[in-house]
Specification:
Blueprint lengths: L10 H24 L3 H7 L7 H4 L5 E2 L4 E3 L2 H9 L3 E2 L9 H9 L21 H12 L2 H21 L6 E3 H6 L1 H11 L6 H11 L9 H27 L5 H8 L4 H32 L1 H9 L4 H11 L5 E6 L3 E3 L2 E3 L4 E5 H4 L35 H18 L4 E2 L4 E2 L8 E3 L1 E3 L1
Helix pairs in contact: 1-2, 1-5, 7-9, 7-17, 9-13, 10-11, 11-13, 13-15, 13-17, 15-17
């Protein structure tokens, strides 16, 4: 099914949404980046992030458009502080423009950063949503997924012909494994998975600031398609529930339809693209560090270290944003009420005050799991243990079956900036 474009009547509203939510920040970020500002450069560039220039500006770098930090202590403090919240993502807009944006919002193309998504709300509403979802997303449900993950990974590996020459490990493995897991969690029928995969891929750029109008309209079309699909899917689960997590939430009856769509969409978005990136980034990192790869091959129990160190060194999500709800002092720097702060998770993970020799990829690093790649505080990733389970099992089975796997050709990075991973990575087995 093709993505659902905005109707001719909706198009001017869609353009206004783009202008307010991306057009302005596009102009601001591109010009600040061009002038050499390291924060704008980081938010704007698709290159491998270099956190050094931002670190050189101190624990918090203030700019008129936003502040930013790559300091572990400051990032950790902001994420856990009740003086900061998720805001509405538009702290740089004036009050009238924020009002206008609310007026033109699209109720059938809401994204992961639009309420009632859990990621877009603060306590006490957040506490209510998180409690409902956690009741269904239990540790037991996650550990019972181990069998499914092992079985799916085994089937996918059986389908890959080792004599085929080059195999794109992203398309053939890193994507298919988390897709199968999330589809199981959300009760997506087999015949609809290809659509979900395509729309999810197209929608992933929604997290990037300053999209062009062309990219934004494609992203919005994908969001709209996902929204309509979820509407039908929730209706279907109401009359014929399965034993998946979304059905459990439907049966519990604590969330209304819009809230259920938001949860479904968030689980899909947060849980799928990120895990694909983690598996792909780990394969690439091991290939780039043959000594670490040899350590893993000699001792497969080091796969836990591979997962944590990859999360730290090349995280699937490099930045999130918080807004100061009150004047605050963070790491000795005054932050005014209303300031938006880019909390650069990838930069905090390379803070030499916490991680010795931070640019080195070392799967035996004792404190690698202190990374902030799953965030911290209120919005700490709800799927962290599932993501770890998938990556550990996925990577262990991959290297068990193909110990001489090597990258064989140029990998292509995804074009997204906030989500970092590979679109393709050819390997020889
Ligand atoms: C390697 C894989 C993953 C990474 C790196 C990751 C990263 C993150 C990050 C950074 C946040 C918080 C953003 C913020 O503080 O603004 C988050 C939140 C979240 N993640 Fe994950 N995630 C991953 C996998 C998953 C999976 C597998 C699921 C579920 C199936 C999931 C579900 C969620 C949900 C529901 C939230 C929102 C939590 C809240 O707002 O309370 N994530 N994730």
């Amino acid at each position: 099914m093709p993505p659902l474009e905005a109707s001719p009547l909706e198009r001017p509203r869609s353009y206004a949404r783009w202008a307010l939510s991306h057009g302005i920040s596009r102009a601001v970020l591109s010009s600040a980046s061009w002038r050499g500002d390291p924060l704008a450069g980081l938010m704007w560039s698709r290159d491998t992030p270099d956190y050094g220039p931002l670190r050189a500006r101190g624990p918090i770098h203030m700019q008129p458009f936003m502040a930013g930090t790559v300091s572990y202590a400051a990032a950790n403090e902001i994420l856990r502080s009740s003086d900061f919240g998720v805001g509405d993502g538009q702290a740089e807009l004036s009050v009238p423009l924020r009002w206008l944006l609310a007026k033109v919002s699209a109720s059938d193309a809401l994204g992961p950063f639009d309420a009632p998504s859990m990621l877009a709300v603060d306590p006490p509403l957040h506490t209510r949503y998180r409690k409902q979802v956690s009741k269904a997303f239990t540790a037991r449900r996650v550990s019972s997924m181990a069998e499914t993950v092992t079985a799916v990974a085994g089937e996918l590996l059986d389908q890959i012909d080792p004599h085929e020459g080059r195999v794109d490990i992203i398309q053939e493995y890193a994507t298919k494994l988390p897709l199968a897991v999330i589809a199981e969690l959300l009760g997506v029928p087999d015949s609809e998975r290809a659509d979900i995969l395509r729309w999810g891929d197209q929608a992933a750029a929604i997290l990037d600031p300053g999209l062009s109008w062309r990219d934004y309209s494609q992203v919005e079309a994908a969001m709209r398609s996902l929204h309509h699909w979820f509407e039908d899917h929730v209706r279907r689960l109401r009359s014929d529930p399965g034993d998946d997590l979304l059905s459990a939430l439907v049966i519990a009856g604590d969330l209304d339809d819009i809230e259920l769509h938001a949860v479904g969409l968030l689980l899909l978005g947060a849980g799928f693209e990120t895990t694909v990136n983690l598996i792909g980034n780990a394969v690439a990192a091991l290939d780039g560090h043959p000594d670490q790869r040899d350590l893993l091959l000699a001792d497969p129990s080091l796969v836990d270290g591979v997962v944590e160190e990859t999360l730290r060194w090349d995280p699937p999500v490099i930045v999130t944003v918080r807004e100061a709800y009150a004047a605050a002092s963070v790491a000795g720097v005054d932050v005014a009420k209303g300031t938006a702060v880019a909390v650069v998770l990838g930069g905090a993970n390379r803070d030499p005050a916490v991680f010795g020799d931070p640019d080195t990829y070392d799967i035996t690093r004792p404190n690698a799991d202190q990374h902030l790649s799953f965030s911290a505080g209120t919005h700490f990733c709800l799927g962290a243990s599932l993501a770890r389970l998938e990556a550990r099992i996925g990577l262990r089975l991959l290297f068990e079956r193909h110990p001489s796997l090597r990258v064989a050709g140029q990998g292509v990075r995804r074009s997204t900036r906030v989500l970092r991973g590979y679109a393709s990575l050819p390997v020889a087995l």
